[in-house]
Amino acid sequence: MQHTIVMTGATRGIGRVAAENILRRSPDAHLVVVARGSSATGFAADGRVSHVAADLGSLDGVRSAATEIRDRLARGDLPPLRAFAGNAGMQYTDDLTEGPDGLESTFTINVLANHVFVRLLEDRFARPARIVITVSDTHFGDFRHNMGMVPGPSWRSPEILARTGAFPEPDRAAAGRTAYSTSKLAAIYLVHEYARRLPDGIDVIAYNPGFVPGTGLTRNADLVSRFAVRYLMRAVALTPFATGCRAAGRYLADLVLGTTPAPTGSYVDRDRVAASSRESYDPRRERELWDVAERLTLTADSRPSR
To answer: Is the pTM value of this prediction over 0.70?
Structure first.
């Protein structure tokens, strides 16, 4: 049966591999790629790929993209919606990068943009449906999961995390990396809250690809950091700590297509359901984050009726 899959972060790295896997393995799928400008070009899929332009660092842009997809689904221009993959992610070299909404950019892209898509599309899903949010094992904050390269999360009130300067020495790279790991912890919190709030038949899953060298995540980093990731991390890529890009993309496609069984609210480490960090299970934080995300992302006009 013809169906639609909406995906962010599909133009490079594991997302590109996942998108190509989805198109090859699911001939009835129509893929809607949400990306900047014309960066979604290059898919050879016989008209089975649509592009919706959006800067994920702008909440107005994300709302506009989600609304466009809603409208196309309502008109029947797209087949029924079966999946959303929130795979886009960003890491900056400081905690001072601010988007047009006056919010910190890591938190906006890694957390709030996904929230907009989930909320504005939730009543357009044809059940059974699946939402997959790409997270990171950096949220554990220990050497086993991050090899000392990324500081662990440092939770604050979501009101603080959404603004620049949430962490000490915000102009330093360590603060930018802390913002990244903390945003991935936040994404897991929202997955748990979505699992409680979304209608039956819409499953939501947090996907951890592991450490994947060469994804372009650090493309905004300084020259030294980019050099380290590109060359020095090649050695790490040969260890069990790392996941190859093709494998990580295939695992993501498996989740989106439902090949990997996973109950709603679960954390999937590469290709199997696992436990996320002890800190990541906190209903009070999850509810608080939901409330702040609702207030920051949804206008009176865009808020879905429940």
So the answer is: yes
